[in-house]
């Protein structure tokens, strides 16, 4: 018990943390993979609710019914703004459930349906401030070894390259002020998750006061999902995906 308390104290003082009252929370913003709805998964209860693939419908499991959501294809900047049809439970590796018609509208790659999600709040302009929101949304959970972490682009080269090279994807485990804390967590994962391939764990300096612990790279969803589930079962909360476009 004392060991767990010590870990929590260290991480609380090292992570970029910010808590807000529920009613004043920042708009939801994230990047990750969309789950494209299909009847087979609904009939086999992998998806706990029904959508109509012939219609423009989406479901987000954490946002309320009729919440306005903007979904963006980061590769093409194509987007759609749509209301949350209803809350449906789907595998939590995915960030949102969408119909085939939405996927076609966004021209996303079906094998790697990577999207950006923005919650649009009434009377609040936040899209232009989303970079700031990413940093402010890092919260500590008392049941997890690190903060709820957000999505970011780890590539320093912002120039878009028109080529066919496939992006590499990473699981962002945590963001810290010190390299020592990131190394401490890496050692803990290595010790307490013997089935986890420690060679995938890397510490990267994003800025002078932000050090990331990441896992990857991954080129397929299936391999990434296996590690994601191991980390979630270990106690991490709201893990997100980053890419080096």
Write up what this structure looks like.
The chain is of the alpha+beta class. The protein has two domains: 2-17 and 138-243, no CATH class; 24-128, RlpA-like domain (Barwin-like endoglucanases, Beta Barrel), CATH 2.40.40. It has six helices and twelve strands. It has helices spanning 2-14, 39-43, 100-106, 130-136, 179-192, 221-234; strands at residues 29-36, 58-59, 68-72, 79-83, 96-98, 114-120, 139-140, 147-148, 169-176, 201-207, 210-218, 240-243. The strands form three sheets. The chain has a six-stranded mixed β-sheet with strand order 2-5-1-6-3-4. Strands 10-11-9-12 form a four-stranded antiparallel β-sheet, covered by helices on one side. The termini are far apart.
